[in-house]
């Protein structure tokens, strides 16, 4: 029996909307289309790291039901930001079966942004893979380091969370550089790339009532237009409809996961066609 073409999964940023990624992964696994490579930005980095470390879909669904912002960040004196996401690191070290890049079960890339240089800093690891040479820009650099700190950095929203220092770099959320890292996962060797864009159908917003809502809604608008004006280098782009999901917390996690499932189910015929075409061309 011929080997199935490899699948790369690129998980985009979107804060609490990121639990929709769990629904996407659930459908892929149910259909026997488990990804071979995974990359993630912001909330996508958190889900990607958990998945690559071995956290099951069932466990991710269970954990999503109990998430809240208070458990993932703590208030700080507002000199650079309102909160620190250090509690997110403690949470990840508790739930992930492995917490180092070397021990991951699949190749992983995490997108962060260097706040000083503006570079896209991509942390990578897991089982060895061959770069395809698709990423050659001098302002995109590849690093290795602590997996949990890399995820924390990739989730550190400017103004909302403090930057994360790793070595001589001061790192923040990867959404500033690349919110849907599809080309990065294709460069890892994936034959067919599935991307998840959480900002294609944004939830309606109201006038912000505090600095946190102001920062969050500004970031959301920036990402929406950045993705819309760019190109997602994927064969299949799942776009969960999150317009009926609230903007502020994880209270509708079950609904959000279901929206991810629906978005991926809608794209299954296209994904199978892409896989078939690739298999035929290789044959």
Fold topology:
Layout: E1 7-11, H1 20-30, E2 37-41, H2 43-53, H3 57-65, H4 69-72, E3 74-75, E4 83-84, H5 86-95, E5 108-114, E6 120-125, E7 140-143, H6 147-154, E8 164-166, E9 169-173, H7 182-187, E10 192-196, H8 211-229, E11 236-238, H9 253-282
Helix pairs in contact: 1-3, 1-9, 2-6, 5-6
Description of the molecule:
With 283 residues, the protein is of the alpha/beta class. Helix content is 38%, strand content 17%. The chain has helices spanning 20-30, 43-53, 57-65, 69-72, 86-95, 147-154, 182-187, 211-229, 253-282, and strands at residues 7-11, 37-41, 74-75, 83-84, 108-114, 120-125, 140-143, 164-166, 169-173, 192-196, 236-238. The model has no long low-confidence stretch (mean pLDDT 90).
